[in-house]
Write a structure and sequence with these properties.
By secondary structure, this protein is mostly helical. It has helices spanning 2-13, 18-31, 47-54, 58-69, 95-100, 102-129, 140-151, 155-159, 165-171; strands at residues 32-34, 40-42, 45-46, 76-77, 89-92.
Length: 172
C-alpha cells in the first residue's frame, strides 16, 4: 500500500508547478467521492467537466492526466496512447489507489466536507426562500464565508452536488 502511495506521490511531484498540482487535486477530487462507508468510490467524469471545475484548459488537464497514465503508472483511464477529447471519460483505473494514496484520501475528505457545507447552504437557502428561516448569522455565516474563500467553489463544482447553486450563493 505504501508503495502505491509513494508511486502516486512521485507522479504528483513531477508536475511542473503549483497550477498543475492544483489541477491535479481537482482532477482527482472529480474522479473520486466519499461513499457511505467513508471510503473513496470511483466517479468517472468527462474531461470537459474537469476543465470547468478546475477552471483549466483541456491542455492543462491533459498534461496532468498524462503524468498519471504514462506507461508503468496507468492510474487514470483511458490508457496511455488513447487520444483525449472534450467528451473523453476519465476514471481512476484501480480502486486500490483510492484506498492507498494518502494524499487522495485527504483530498476526498476535504471535498466531502466542502460538499456538506454546500448542501447546508442549499437547504438553508430553500428554507429562506420559502419564509421558513432567516439569514445566517455568525458563527454559521463566518464559517460559510471562510468555506467559500478557502475552497473557491464554482458553479460547475456545485452542480455535481445540487443544482441550486445560484440560489445558495445569493443566500450566502
Amino acid at each position: 500500500a505504501r508503495a502505491l502511495s509513494q508511486h502516486a506521490d512521485e507522479a504528483y511531484r513531477e508536475l511542473p508547478d503549483d497550477r498543475s498540482r492544483k489541477v491535479c487535486e481537482i482532477l482527482f477530487k472529480c474522479l473520486t467521492e466519499r461513499g457511505g462507508d467513508n471510503r473513496g468510490i470511483r466517479r468517472p467524469t468527462r474531461l470537459r467537466e474537469v476543465c470547468a471545475i478546475a477552471e483549466a484548459t483541456p491542455e492543462e488537464v491533459i498534461a496532468v492526466v498524462e503524468r498519471f497514465r504514462q506507461p508503468g503508472r496507468s492510474f487514470i483511464m483511458p490508457p496511455h496512447g488513447v487520444r483525449l477529447e472534450q467528451d473523453s471519460v476519465l476514471d481512476i483505473s484501480h480502486e486500490s489507489l483510492m484506498r492507498a494514496w494518502e494524499r487522495l484520501e485527504r483530498w476526498v475528505e476535504e471535498d466531502a466536507q466542502s460538499a456538506t457545507m454546500y448542501r447546508r447552504l442549499v437547504e438553508s437557502s430553500a428554507l429562506y426562500e420559502n419564509h421558513q428561516s432567516g439569514l445566517w448569522r455568525d458563527p454559521e455565516l463566518q464559517e460559510a464565508v471562510n468555506w467559500r474563500t478557502n475552497n473557491r467553489p464554482n458553479k460547475s463544482w456545485g452542480m455535481r452536488y445540487d443544482p441550486h447553486w445560484d440560489r445558495s450563493m445569493q443566500f450566502l
